[in-house]
Amino acid sequence: MSQPRTAPDLLAYDRDHVWHPYTSMTDPAPVRMVTGASGVRLRLDDGRELVDGMSSWWAALHGYNHPVLNAALAEQAGRMAHVMFGGLTHEPAIRLAQRLVEITPAGLEHVFLADSGSVAMEVALKMVLQHQRGVGHPERTRMLTIRGGYHGDTFGCMSVCDPVGGMHAMFADLLPQHVFADRPPAEGCSEADLAAWTASFRALAAAHAHELAGIVVEPRLQGAGGMWVYPLECLRVMREIADEHDLVLVFDEIATGFGRTGSLFAADAAGVRPDVLAVGKALTGGYLTMAAVLCTGEVARGLSASESGVLMHGPTFMGNPLACSVALASLDLLEQGDWAANVARIGAGLEAGLAPLRGTPGVADVRTLGAVGVVQLDHPVDVAKATEAAIEEGVWLRPFRDLIYTMPPYVTADEDVSLICRAIARASEVA
C-alpha cells in the first residue's frame, strides 16, 4: 500500500481508517489537518491560523510550543523517558507527588499517578470500595452522585455519569446501578430552591446510607455533562452528609483543577476538603496524558485493611518520567504566571463579550465562571455549521449538545478573547 503524502491524501486515509472521539466510522464528521501550533494558535494545512478556544479539551493552559515545557520534556528525555513504577521510583514522580500534596487541600497525603482522567476516576472508585471493605462494610458498594455529571468513558466511570441525559445511556443495563440525586439548582438560585435541593439530597442519602460507599461529583462546574454551574453550598452539604453517614467524598477536578473556575481547585472556593481528589487534563499543560488521585490517610488505611491489602491498580505508564517532569514545569509556570489574575481577566472578557447574547433568538442561557464561557441554545447545535462559522471568524471551537462554549488558555490576550466571543456569537446565529 502506498503511503499517503499530501494533505488531501492524508485526510482521505484518516476518513477511511482513523476513529475520532464520538464519531461514526462509516459516516465520519469532517476534520481539519493541523500542521503546527504556537501560543494560542493552531495552524491548518491550508495556512489559516485559528485561536484555540478549547485549550485542546481544557488541557493546554499555557498555550502551545512553550519553551519552558519544551525544555523540561527534552531534558528529561535525555535522561530517562520511562521506567516501570513497580518496584522502582524516580525523582520526577516523587517531586510531583510532593507538589500535589502541597497545593491541594490539606489532609490529602497520598498520591496515585494515573495515565488519564478516566483511569484516575476508576482508581478513585476502587479506593472508595476497597476502603469500605477494609473498615468492615463490604455491603456498601453504591455511589451517590448527581444528575448531569460526567466522569469518563470507561465502564466504572460510565456508571456514575448521568444515566439518562449523558453519553452512555445505551450501556445503562450493563453498568452497576448507583444512586442519582437531582442536579443542584443553578448558581444564583433562590434560598428556597437551594433548601429544597438540600432536603432532597439529605433524604436520598439517608434512605440509601446502608448501601452507599461514597459520594462522587464534579465540584461547582459539571463539564461534559452540560457546563452547569451550581452553588458552592451544595459541596458543603455533601461534606456534612458524607461525615454523617461515613461515606467517602470524591471530587472529580479533572476539568476544574488548576485554576479553571477561578480558584486553584473548586474545593478551595467551597472550603471543603474531599477524602479523594482526582486531577488531570491541565496537569501537564496539555503536553502528555497524565492524571493523579490523592486521598487522605484515613482512606489509605482503610483500603490497606481490605483483603487484598493493596490498591488493585497499576498502569504500565504509571509515573511516566516525561509526564512528571513536564507537569512540574507546568505547575511552575502556573504559579509564576499569576494564573489567578489571568483567569479573572479572561473571565471578565468573556462576560463582557457574551453578555449581549442574553435574550437573543435561540439563546436559552449565557453563563461564565472563571475562564469558562458558555452559550446554551434552546435547540441542539448543528455542530458542522457552528464549527465552520467559528473557523470563518478565525477561532477553533468544539460545540456539543445545545452548548457553544470556550475554555481558552490562560495566556490568551484580551483581543483574542474578544475574537472568541465574536466567533461564539456567529456560531450561535447559524447553529
UniProtKB/TrEMBL annotation:
Main subcellular localisation: cytoplasm
Enzyme Commission code(s) on record: 2.6.1.62
Pfam families associated with the record: Aminotran_3 (PF00202)
KW DNA repair (keyword) present: no
InterPro entries hit by this protein: Aminotrans_3, Aminotrans_3_PPA_site, BioA, PyrdxlP-dep_Trfase, PyrdxlP-dep_Trfase_major, PyrdxlP-dep_Trfase_small
Localization (cell): Cytoplasm
Residue positions binding pyridoxal 5'-phosphate: 117-118, 252, 315-316
Function: Catalyzes the transfer of the alpha-amino group from S-adenosyl-L-methionine (SAM) to 7-keto-8-aminopelargonic acid (KAPA) to form 7,8-diaminopelargonic acid (DAPA). It is the only aminotransferase known to utilize SAM as an amino donor.
Protein name (record): Adenosylmethionine-8-amino-7-oxononanoate aminotransferase
Organism: Nocardioides fonticola
